[in-house]
Amino acid sequence: MTHSQPKSSASPPTRREFLAQSAALAAMPVAAGLTVPRSVHAAGSDRLRIGLIGCGGRGCGAAASALSVEPAAQLTAVADAFAERTEFARNTLAKRSPEQVAVDDAHCFSGLDAYRRLLASGVVDVALLVEPPHFRPMHVDACIEAGVHVFAEKPMGVDAPGVRRLLAAGEQAKEKKLSFVSGFETRYRPGAREVMRRIHDGAIGEIQAIQCNYNTGFLWHRGRQPDWTEMQYQLRNWYYFTWLSGDHNVEQHCHLMDIAAWIMRDEPPLDAWGVGGRQVRVEPKWGDIFDHHAVVYEYASGARCYGICRQQANCWNDVSLIAYGTKGRLTSSGLNRFTLTGETNYEGESDKEHPESITFREMFAGIRAGTPLNESVQIARSTMLSILGRMATHSGQRIRWDDALASTLDLSPKRYDWDATPPILPDADGVYPVPIPGVTKVL
After folding, report:
1. Are the C-beta atoms of residues 103 and 76 closer than 8 Å to each other?
2. pTM of the entire structure?
3. How much is the mean pLDDT over the chain?
4. Which of 139, 253, 323, 420 suits a disulfide with 309, CB 3.0-4.6 Å?
5. How far apart are the first and last CA of the chain?
């Protein structure tokens, strides 16, 4: 099980090259509404065989959505670092969709190399990647190499080398005609799509500023057992370690940053700066991540985006977005209600179904039609936007997009095994080193 995964050494694209790459991929056909031919996968049958990599609650939710929209889909394999999670997923999904779950014991894979054994099994056409964000670039890479279509939950990585690896995998997916679809589900909401079309047609004029709030309370923690190695403990509590989650402004706030990127026509900013730290969530069990971030992104047009997020108990909570234009503004309550006011007034329609269901419906339509969806550049850009923000808050520096994307700072461990040394270790008192603005280096 001991192995390492080198990241892509491809030269990082500049901001100009990133935009050109985006335009090329944007020209690819969209799957929605396509006529669906039959017998295009699974050795000539009309069956889509799904493998789930990452078997927690979020993974089960994604698999349930995929099965619900595709009667011919079948869950054929599951994989997770922890064996009990594979059993949890298999049992949970079998109770929900008994006719669509066909996972025998031989196709329940566990361990840190479980994803490789799942892909080598030959029983999977589509992989759902719902493991901690650190693993997404290597898992996406392995899926594309194996000729398997990919749905990857957000975010898609935790550092610039991982983002560059995603871009390379996206190009390979395009060549192989494989799907590469993300969990940035707001882009699949019909109401959000119509509002964004109007914004891009000039409904609120030129964008001047965007404010993104993702303020919540504390989340889960799974404690520590005496027989766990340090690697097991950190993977059990992956959210609280930057190398695994990217910090919470990457793991959670990225949803709103993706919407901000969409508003800005997916143009990367010039640079970012910000403030952040730990004021409330300071105990060692919270690893090395911050509990608040506030980032200013500056664009070539002069527009600015303000990304504010906080995970602190007993505070005012808010998940919202406001975009100010020269002719009006967009407001969003949560991620699903979008309203335009000003010279144009428009209320976006409410969700009639979960956007994840729409994601899978369009993904599967593209697979069957031979016109797979490839969102790799959008995926990489929105992920990198959040990573750029974390780099700014952890370091206390103003950081250019091009410099951040070219960063060689790799957060990976030297090897992956239960007795391996994680990238961060506690001191003798069990305290993990926390980034210090003005001291921590990110470039």
Report:
1. yes
2. 0.90
3. 92
4. 253
5. 32
